[in-house]
Write a structure and sequence with these properties.
The complex is a heterotrimer of chains A (267), B (464) and C (256).
Chain A: H1 2-28, H2 46-53, H3 59-93, H4 96-111, H5 114-127, H6 134-159, H7 163-170, H8 175-204, H9 207-212, H10 221-231, H11 238-266
Helix pairs in contact in A: 3-6, 3-8, 3-10, 4-6, 6-8, 7-8
Chain B: E1 6-17, E2 20-31, E3 35-39, H1 46-54, E4 61-66, E5 69-70, E6 81-84, H2 96-106, H3 111-124, H4 140-152, E7 158-162, H5 170-187, E8 190-195, H6 198-204, E9 207-212, E10 215-220, H7 222-227, H8 232-237, E11 242-250, E12 253-256, E13 259-262, E14 272-278, E15 283-286, E16 294-303, E17 308-314, E18 319-324, E19 333-338, E20 344-347, E21 353-361, E22 364-367, E23 370-373, E24 384-389, E25 394-397, E26 405-414, E27 419-425, E28 430-435, E29 444-449, E30 455-458
Parallel strand pairs in B: 3-8, 3-9, 6-7, 7-8
Antiparallel strand pairs in B: 1-2, 1-4, 4-5, 9-10, 11-12, 11-14, 12-13, 14-20, 15-19, 16-17, 16-19, 17-18, 21-22, 21-24, 22-23, 24-30, 25-29, 26-27, 26-29, 27-28
Chain C: H1 9-30, H2 41-48, H3 50-82, H4 90-97, H5 104-117, H6 124-149, H7 152-160, H8 165-194, H9 198-203, H10 210-219, H11 223-253
Helix pairs in contact in C: 1-11, 2-11, 3-6, 3-8, 6-8, 7-8, 8-11, 10-11
Classes of the chains: A mainly alpha (267), B alpha+beta (464), C mainly alpha (256).
């Protein structure tokens, strides 16, 4: 029994080590000045200093890529959360073939690989002669984010006691009051997880952005890294930036999880 | 049918989960071929006993023997027992036939024999045409039958059934009860059955084991348990009953309802406090003043299908439930009597609350992990003492402020003119309270005890 | 409440405009020439172009190998994580998903760099390893979910009926977890076929996968041929999706 436990824990540990090796690697080499990734030229926090003071080559490029990434992710996930929640309420109240059709259509963007989503939207914009840039990238991101919001909100609707909305009306609430004071609070957890999922997927997206950003020179972190790597030299400040982003997300996720498990323990 | 030898014997069985004792010194045996039911409210530990017999849990202490052999080291798959699970646990990836054949295939039984045995049990559970059906297409009752078939096809020495009818609706449950009973007769296998439904237990069992809070309360045949409950819990849990405080005057003479009655119980001593149980169908109406033992006024009268259920207020201020085939109008004065045979006298489990306590200073004493003020005259700081509080001196509050400690109400007994409540404190100790207020099971309450109501005495061994 | 169903309408229009229409456009571009006239030339070109075909075959091969590798490593991981004897903490599970939040390209570059430092030549081996690394969480998570939600009474029932631990796993746990494995396969297989950038980084541009060809064609304004290649992928997606549906229905139904 005990030997099995040791074996299991070792296996898990080993997989984790492999999974985290590249990330730890980036983090370690963020503390040296060298340009290329695997080159250690002594401990230094210069890269961090450069990042925060903006005193580096092409700092404008990297910082604007970061800004674009965050802005696109924010707009896309806010719109997706709104659109997806309204859609989920609608789909929940549909019946039969209409409901099946909506569920089927909603599944397509999730099943499609990024490149298909990217190419198909690219062809759409070309076909309609829409010049590509910020707007098309945001539209594309909304397209692949919204299905996940719908998928997160729908279960909350089916778990909900169908009478509570009617109870609110019965107690004198107008439909819009019942929506705001009863329905939305019930759906909120699903909306929040849908939003977080949308935001992180938008942050991480490369392929779809690559095909829908057009030729106006719009860069997000992903396309920036891609272009950088193709040129041969990564902007060294990417290393501290990625380290900071990772640590931030690590702390947020651990915080959420520890709080959750404490809550469930209490119950 | 029922042999005299013990097929399963359980001695001194105890089990704790996370430091909480769920089973405390369980001793019982199961006779070969009998239908034995473990009966108790949810969380009483009955399922834990079953899972230890099946091998899914290991006892902390105690021995389980099967046919005289200790089965402690035997993993579940080596035990010649089979279980019918609470929610059936039919394998969703296998059809009816393969579910039933699962155990036989593992034992490498020849295919023709598997075929023959599967067909035989399917016939036994009246599901012959369902071999190829997916289990997900079956109704609850049908799944139930397949679950039983899957277990008995392996010809286990003992069949364990964990609340197998709990998920079915009332009508279906009644039908399945009859079928189970017949199956038990036909198969001759020993059944150990777990349920919280007292009626089911009374209907099905040869022997009932009543369990509460991890302890066996009573073991006996259904009729004995119904007619002669050993304590208030059993009397209240099984059937309807009037439970009253009483006093044994002498052998065969007991006082309750502020009247004296002849009874058949002996050996309690003289002038001893007792509890008395009278079933509602055992209180009789009479028009003969010579027979009348006490009078009452009918308070309510409800038709219950076969009989009428009436609540009456006695001349001495108690409320009683009476069941009779004839209704009496509300407001009418009636004369009542009880046969000596129908009065069940029970030893009182406790007459007050007493806790092991420690004097922590002048006028201060600690028990139940809480410090109380009280008169500590005659005791020194650090003395181990016993703190006693009468049931009616414990105050329950609906809020935490001003309370000495808090707890949840875990059981409520109506005693004719007041409620006897069991309150479990946060620390997991029980306090018993007599109260006239109406509370609900599960209520969160504050507990208040006044200094003058705490009586200290020299510590005795144990607290219960 | 009937009015509520109309709330689906905006999203329906959105889906038609941004999902259905674009997919139809792939079909349209794939079956027309530069002037918008119907032609099968783009499709026939693919089947007669040795380069495209061999890249396609290689992509499928790499995807199959990668998927198998992910199952091989991911299944035991998910099983251990879902087993209450070995792991009771949800945080451990989060640790396995967390790397997904680091930019995939950045992680891939670091992986490639680690290989270079270790003196491993970039090629198919590193490609497989790096891909497996990228997609492993997508395999672990669905399997873990299914195993974690699986009622313990199934495995208890199997033990009760005489199954040894190894038999419990083979005859009950594994078949019941197949839906998780299948959705893991869906999340790993198609994305692997279609990756670009990642495969280039991991092999130092030595190995091109199908995604890269699509990207090159689209970027070089060969939209019709690019669309034809995309159409071929769409067909494969449709087939695998239908296979998965069939399989999961069978599993729910119960004949294996």
């Amino acid at each position: 029994m005990n030997a099995k436990k040791v074996l299991a824990k070792t296996y898990i540990g080993l997989v984790l080590v492999i999974l985290y090796a590249p990330i730890v690697f980036i983090a370690i080499f963020s503390f040296t000045e060298a340009k290329s990734l695997g080159n250690w030229t002594g401990f230094s926090i210069d890269l961090y200093r450069n990042l925060f003071t903006g005193s580096m080559q092409n700092s404008a490029g990297l910082l604007s890529a970061l800004e674009n990434t965050l802005l696109i992710a924010l707009i896309a996930s806010v719109v997706a959360t709104f659109l997806g929640t309204v859609a989920a309420i609608g789909i929940f109240n549909l019946k039969g073939a209409k409901k099946n059709t909506m569920n089927f259509l909603n599944n397509i963007p999730m099943i499609n690989p990024d490149i298909i989503t990217g190419v198909s939207l690219f062809l759409l914009f070309v076909f309609l002669h829409i010049s590509q840039g910020y707007v098309t990238v945001i539209l594309a991101h909304i397209t692949f984010c919204t299905p996940y919001v719908v998928l997160n909100v729908l279960p909350k609707l089916s778990q909900m006691n169908p009478n509570i909305y009617e109870a609110a009306l019965d107690l004198g609430a107008t439909p819009s009051q019942a929506l705001r004071k009863v329905l939305i609070p019930v759906l909120r957890p699903g909306m929040v997880s849908g939003f977080i999922l949308s935001f992180t997927m938008s942050l991480d997206d490369f392929a779809v952005t690559f095909f829908t950003r057009g030729t106006i020179g719009l860069e997000t972190l992903s396309t920036y890294i891609y272009a950088d790597a193709r040129k041969g030299g990564l902007t060294p400040e990417l290393k501290p930036l990625m380290t900071i982003i990772f640590l931030f997300i690590l702390m947020v996720l651990l915080f959420i999880n520890i709080r959750q498990s404490k809550n469930t323990e209490k119950k | 049918m029922i042999g005299n030898d013990k097929i399963i014997n359980i001695e001194h069985l105890s089990k704790s989960f996370d430091g909480k004792k769920v089973l405390d010194d369980i001793n019982l045996y199961v006779k070969r071929g009998e239908f034995l039911t473990l009966l108790g409210p949810s969380g009483c530990g009955k399922t834990t006993i079953l899972r230890m017999i099946a091998g899914f849990l290991q006892p902390d202490e105690g021995v389980i023997t099967l046919d005289g052999k200790d089965i402690a080291g035997l993993p579940p798959h080596m035990r010649p027992l089979n279980t019918v699970f609470q929610r059936y646990a039919l394998f969703p990836h296998l059809d009816v036939y393969d579910n039933i054949a699962f155990g036989l295939k593992l034992k490498k039984t020849p295919e023709e024999e598997i075929d023959e045995r599967v067909r035989r049990v399917l016939k036994l559970v009246a599901m012959s045409d369902y071999e190829d059906r997916d289990v997900s297409t079956l109704s609850g009752g049908q799944q139930q039958r397949i679950a039983i078939a899957r277990a008995i096809v392996n010809q286990p020495k003992v069949l364990l059934l964990d609340e197998p009818l709990a998920a079915l609706d009332l009508k279906m449950r009644k039908d399945m009860q009859i079928e189970l009973k017949e199956m038990h007769k036909k198969l001759g296998i020993t059944f150990i059955y777990v349920t919280h439904d007292q009626e089911e237990a009374l209907t099905l069992s040869d022997t009932i084991v009543v369990i509460n809070e991890g302890k066996i309360q009573q073991i006996g045949a259904p009729i004995d348990i119904y007619n002669e409950p050993v304590n208030c819990f059993v009397a209240d849990f099984i059937g309807e009953s009037n439970i009253l405080k009483g006093r044994m005057m002498r052998d065969r003479r007991v006082a309750f309802l502020k009247h004296e009655f002849d009874c058949v119980d002996e050996g309690f001593g003289e002038d001893v406090p007792v509890d008395v149980v009278v079933r509602p169908e055992d209180i009789y109406f009479t028009t003969d003043p010579a027979k009348c033992q006490f009078t009452a006024k009918v308070n309510s009268c409800t038709f219950k299908g076969v009989h009428y259920e009436m609540w009456v207020d006695t001349d001495t201020g108690y409320e009683l439930m009476i069941q009779d085939y004839d209704p009496y109008p509300v407001g009418s004065e009636v004369m009542l009597y009880i046969d000596p045979d129908d009065i069940q006298v029970m030893k009182k489990e406790r007459t007050d609350n007493s806790f092991p306590a420690k004097v922590t200073g002048e006028g201060k004493v600690e028990f139940l992990e809480t410090e109380f003020e009280c008169n500590t005259e005659g005791f020194e700081e650090g003395d181990d003492v016993t703190a006693s509080i009468r049931f009616e001196k414990v105050d329950l509050l609906d809020h935490e402020e001003d309370a000495d400690l808090t707890g949840n109400i875990v059981s409520i007994l109506y005693m004719g003119n007041h409620y006897h409540l069991t309150v479990k404190t946060e620390a997991g100790e029980n306090i018993w309270v007599d109260s006239n207020d109406i509370w609900d099971k599960g209520d969160f309450v504050g507990i208040k005890i006044l200094p003058e109501d705490i009586k200290l005495s020299k510590a005795t061994q144990g607290n219960e | 409440m009937s009015k509520r169903s109309s709330w689906a309408l905006p999203y329906f229009i959105f889906l038609v405009l941004f999902v259905v229409l674009p997919l139809l456009l792939i079909v349209f571009y794939a079956l027309t020439d530069g002037n918008g006239h119907f032609t099968l030339a783009n499709i026939t070109r693919f089947f007669s172009d040795g380069d495209s075909l061999s890249t396609f075959a290689l992509s499928i091969e790499v995807a199959i190998e990668n998927t198998l590798l992910c199952i091989l490593i991911g299944y035991p991981t998910a099983w251990i994580l879902a087993n209450k004897d070995y792991n009771r903490s949800a945080v451990t599970v989060v640790l396995f998903i967390l790397p997904m939040w680091v930019n995939a390209l950045m992680r891939t570059l670091a992986t490639a760099e680690l290989f270079t430092m270790a003196g491993v030549t970039l090629g198919k081996g590193t490609l497989l390893f790096g891909m497996c690394y990228d997609y492993l969480p997508f395999m672990i998570y669905p399997i873990y979910n299914v195993l974690n939600k699986m009622d313990v009474s199934y495995s208890e029932a199997a033990q009760d009926l005489g199954a040894k631990p190894s038999e419990v796993f083979r005859k009950v746990t594994l078949p019941l977890s197949m839906p998780g494995v299948l959705s893991g396969v869906m999340m790993v297989f198609m994305p692997t076929v279609s990756t670009f950038a990642i495969s280039e980084f991991l092999t130092n541009n030595k190995i091109k996968l199908f995604g890269t060809i699509i990207q090159e064609n689209i970027n070089n304004s060969m939209w019709n041929y690019g669309a034809a290649l995309s159409l071929i992928m769409l067909v494969i997606i449709a087939i695998t999706t239908m296979l998965q549906k069939d399989n999961s229905e069978q599993l729910e139904g119960g004949t294996i």
